[in-house]
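Bug: token stream looks shifted between consecutive jobs. Job 1:
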Amino acid sequence: MFNKIMKRGQKKPSKPETVEAPMPAAPASNVTVNHASRQPTASSQTQTLPVTVPQNPGVVEVLPMLKDVPLTERHGLFIRKVQICCVFFDFSDTMKSAREKEIKRQNLTELVDLVQSGSCKMNEIMQEELVKMISVNIFRCLPPAPHESSDTKGGDPEEDEPFADPAWPHLQLVYELLLRYVVSSDMETRVAKRYLDHTFVLKMLDLFDSEDMREREYLKTILHRIYGRFMVHRPFIRNAINNVFYRFVFETERYNGVGELLEILGSIINGFALPMKEEHKLFLVRALVPLHKPTSVATYHQQLTYCVTQFVEKDYRLADTVIRGLLKCWPVTNCGKEVLFLGELEEILEFTQSLEFKRCMVPLFRQIGRSLNSPHFQVAERALFWWNNEHIVGLIAENRHVILPIIFDALEKNIHSHWNQAINGLSSNVRRMFLEMDSELFEDCQREYEEMEARAGEREEQRVSAWKRLEQVAAQV
């Protein structure tokens, strides 16, 4: 879906037919559309438009097509069509105002084609009215999630049917219009940044919480394009996304668009120049690493892993910071989440150099030892699969004198007492690899393990005998 939208935004416009907008001469329209993103500029207050809009805002009149009127009248007709598209309808009832809805749909379709083709060069007033109309249509209160409604209370959000906004056929045209406007070669960023301002961006980020996946896909594409074209907005967009993540992790743990925002950030991180700014490193530590905490991490873990590994790939010195951060967020009872973490750590270790590995290998393999002994076979299996990775095996072999004593006990317990035969076999294979790496070290670890088991047996015998003596004393009393 993302690639399709991106390609549609790159279609070559047809040969433009430039239209010079006439100087306004008639009184201003008495219909005001409240713009959600900015206050009207001085120029828009002083200039007036030769447009007559119906007194009743609920009336949608049929207007001629822009291509059927003289060039001198297209400017006014464009404004009039845009203002008619500001009328709201109840899409929950398909039969209500069906004719008016169809007129609005036709006007929106015509505006999309017009902006895409570039056949009518828009001046500042036209652009302002266009963004006003888009704001009025898309900036709205989102409906509650299906699992939050009273009739489905107590249900599982993951089992709900995907939400489909009944107004989407019209909303899609509005989003398509906004996308065409943002990617248009005729759009001047100097002018457009007055309308696509910081408030507009913040309201777009609120819409990422939409339950409709189709809407989030459009928002992702449009915000990414805005980031690419408006350099002045880039720091603000990054900070605004940071704030969304902070609120999600530390307050609500409820936000639908985390995955889409991470996809945008993955592309942004890929373009970071080296040496990396301190601001970007702080973003990794304060936003991306804490995103591993929420229980819903599985819904966006793939995008999160890509962003984190991009940082480590660009600067291998960040590996120690990332690995220690993941260990702090390590799940205790969520086995599915633990499997995801083990897979992510393997990808991070692919880009980890020997020096950084040595800094974090002790706490890392203490956790791996606990995962090896997990009664959930998928967790133990995923940890044992690390020894199929040549780069990780090389790092382990280089530091075997530290790592083998940490996990030897876990391997022996798996071989002798794990309930799953596949885990028994994989643990035996890893044990054999260490034996082939360094037989002398292996024998030392085995001797220590046997001595430890013997001491544990002695302690167990002492404990049993002590309880027997206490029972005998209690019986005599």
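Job 2, same session, no restart:
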Amino acid sequence: MKLELLDGEMIYHCFQGSVHGNGGIETYVKTLALSSLPGISDRIITSIENLDQKQVKLLHLHSPEILVEWRQECPVIFTLHNHSCYCPSGTKYLADRQQICDRTMQPLGCTWGHIVDGCGSRRPNRIVKSWKNSASALENLKKLPIPIIANSDYVRKQIIHHGLPAHRVTTLRCGVKPPQSPTAPLSREIHQNQRILFAGRIVPDKGLEWLIKALAQTDSRIHLDIAGDGWDKPAMERLAQKMGLSDRITWHGWCNFEQLETLYHQCFAVIFPSLWPEPAGLVTLEAYARYRPVIASAVGGIPEQVQDGKTGILVSLNNVSQLAAAIAQLATNYSQAKFMGESGQAWYQQEFTIDVHVQRLAEIYAKAIAEFRDRNQGDFSGYVEKATLNLTP
């Protein structure tokens, strides 16, 4: 078999999904690979099986399926973006019980979760396939000598709980690009427009039903903009109509960059009401980059990105009255909403810009290259220095 040659001076991102999607992983991988950063190829590789891996400086894997294709001929790191390596449904959420799943992955409990608790598909073939994929990914992560990046402490604790040594797993929270258009702190005029924003997929786990019910308990001047689409949209539209909220909600559907920028600009707060334990979520960071406070559910990795009372407000899972009270609090207090937005922007500049993220990632790359060199006693002289210097934006 003839192997494809790559530029040995480059680091490559490997991802089986499409970077043309709107999901968090797609957005993150696309941002890293397509940002013209020195030392990182803008080519995203979907398979490494037929690559000449000996010539590669480092491979950054983002899909667990690719783990089996690594021949231990080059440095590799793997990022855990979600729960799929230790949860067959990928949600860690028991939908029918509206509870976070605290079970360790094992066949009986996970089958029960799918069939009885509605954590995922109830189709037998889908259950078996999901189990095999997660079990295989977890086994590979345990046996392969590669560093693991978790995008939150929550995810890190989960994978360690499922058997990975703590010293192999590092938390590195995501970064997002700054807005391309000018941004400014929340103005009194925009605050007086009394608009809030939900941006995300319209599926039950994202908590839009909870938000609509909370909206009904707020002042009638508050208007909800919904940027996103999904299979649960018709049901949510019926709920809004039933509750007499149709004139207080605007359904924008999937929004392009310019449309979403406008919606961020005209709101006084961004609502992130997920019911499932989000591994991290980029919505909070995107809000901070635009001087907007965040009202979010205290689940999964979300609390790691919301400083309660400073950059936003955390609310208990599915608590309608508490969410309504948080919205009302910022709707009636311009100074607090503005302060939280400015605090979030300052935190974003300190911790969550893509430049800060890349510099921290470069350190992980350098360490992975050095450990691979020591383990294999190969000639990798200079790689550590290059990994750091070549990634400076």
